[in-house]
Design brief:
23% strand, binds guanosine-5'-diphosphate, elongated, 3-stranded mixed β-sheet, alpha/beta, 9 strands, binds magnesium ion
Length: 299
C-alpha cells in the first residue's frame, strides 16, 4: 500500500507506576498487538506494539529505564536519559490517576518537554471518581503545571473514552509512510529509532528552510562487542536542499552527526561510529533496496 495520505508516528506512555499504563496500552492496541523481539538491555525505547488503522500507523513505545526507588541520584539520571529519548517521539501520553496524584507525578511532568512533541494528558480511572465534578478542579490544577495539547479522561479498565483518545492520537500523527506491514512486524525497531534520531537532529537544525519531511535511511547497522557502526543516508529531493543540510563547510552535517551519535550511544548503550551521507533522490520510495534496508518486507 502506498499513498500520500499515510500517517505514522511514535507515541510514548509516561506515568508513574500503577496509574494504568499497561491496561491502557492493551485497550489501545486491542487484540492487534504485535510485539517485536524486545531488547530492553540494549535499547531504551522499547517497542510495545503497533496499531495500523487504515492510513494511520501508531507505534507505541515506552522506557524500560524508568525507575523510582532508593538511589534517587541514579534514578534521576536514568529517568533523564529515558525521558530524553521519549521527548523525541511524536506524541506523549502522560497518564495520571486523579485520586493518587502526588509529587512523583509532578517530578515526571517537569522533565517532559512539549517542544518537539504533542503531550496529551490522560486522566485514567475515572470510573473510581464518584463525583465527576471533582475532575474539574483537578484538571485546572494540573493544567497550571503544564500546557497540555489535550486533556482526556478515560477508564482503561472499563474501556471508556479509549476511542476518543485514539482519535486524538490519530489527529496528531505526522504524515509519513508506514514502517510496518499491517499485520507483521519487521525486526527493525533499532534501525527505525536510529533513523528517527537522525531525522530529528536534521529537522531541529534545518528548520523551515527545507519544508518537507526529511527521509533518513539506515544502510548499515553492524554490531561488534565494543562498537556499533551505522551508515545512514539522508535523502533530499533537490540539490539545493542537499546544500542546506550539509551547511557551510559541512558544519551543519557535522553537528547533526555529533548530536545524533550522542543520543544513539545513550539509546544503544554502546560506542557508536556514525557515517552519514546526504543524497539527492527523487522518488526514493520506489527504491526497493533502500526500503528493505529499513525493514519494509513483502511490500
Ligand atoms: P502501570 O503500572 O501504570 O502499567 O499500571 P497497570 O496497568 O499495571 O494498572 C495498575 C492497576 O490499576 C491494576 O490493578 C489495574 O487493574 C488498575 N487499573 C488500570 N486502569 C484502571 C481504570 O481505568 N480503573 C480502575 N478502577 N483501575 C484501573
Ligand atoms: Mg505497567
Amino acid at each position: 500500500m502506498t499513498n500520500d495520505k499515510q500517517k505514522t508516528g511514535m507515541v510514548s506512555l509516561i506515568g508513574k507506576t500503577n496509574v494504568g499504563k499497561s491496561t491502557l496500552l492493551n485497550q489501545l492496541i486491542e487484540q492487534k498487538i504485535s510485539i517485536t523481539s524486545r531488547k530492553p538491555q540494549t535499547t531504551r525505547l522499547r517497542l510495545l506494539g503497533i496499531k495500523t488503522k487504515q492510513n494511520n500507523q501508531i507505534i507505541y513505545v515506552d522506557t524500560p529505564g524508568f525507575h523510582k526507588g532508593h538511589n534517587r541520584k541514579l534514578n534521576k539520571f536514568m529517568n533523564k536519559v529515558a525521558l530524553s529519548s521519549i521527548n523525541g517521539t511524536d506524541i506523549i501520553l502522560f497518564v495520571v490517576d486523579p485520586l493518587n496524584f502526588s509529587e512523583t507525578d509532578k517530578e515526571l511532568l517537569n522533565q517532559i518537554s512539549s517542544d518537539d512533541n504533542e503531550v496529551i494528558l490522560v486522566i485514567n480511572k475515572i470510573d473510581k471518581v464518584d463525583k465527576k465534578d471533582r475532575l474539574i478542579p483537578f484538571v485546572e490544577e494540573i493544567s497550571k503545571l503544564f500546557a497540555f495539547n489535550e486533556v482526556i479522561p478515560v477508564s482503561a479498565l472499563k474501556n471508556r473514552n479509549i476511542g476518543l483518545l485514539e482519535g486524538e492520537i490519530i489527529k496528531r500523527l505526522p504524515f509519513g509512510k508506514h514502517l510496518y506491514p499491517e499485520d507483521q512486524i519487521a525486526d527493525a525497531s533499532q534501525r527505525y529509532l536510529t533513523s528517527e534520531i537522525i531525522r530529528e537532529k536534521c529537522i531541529s537544525r534545518v528548520g523551515d528552510e527545507v519544508p518537507y519531511r526529511l527521509t533518513v535511511m539506515i544502510e548499515g547497522f553492524k554490531e561488534t562487542k565494543s562498537l556499533i557502526t551505522i551508515d545512514a543516508i539522508i535523502y533530499v529531493e533537490k540539490k539545493s536542499q542537499k546544500g542546506i543540510v550539509i551547511g557551510d563547510q559541512g558544519k551543519l552535517l557535522k553537528s547533526i552527526g555529533m548530536a545524533s551519535r550522542k543520543d544513539l550511544e545513550k539509546l544503544l548503550e554502546a560506542k557508536v561510529m556514525l557515517n552519514i551521507w546526504v543524497k539527492v533522490k527523487k522518488d526514493w520510495t520506489n527504491d526497493q533496496r533502500t526500503m528493505s534496508s529499513m525493514g519494509y518486507k513483502n511490500v
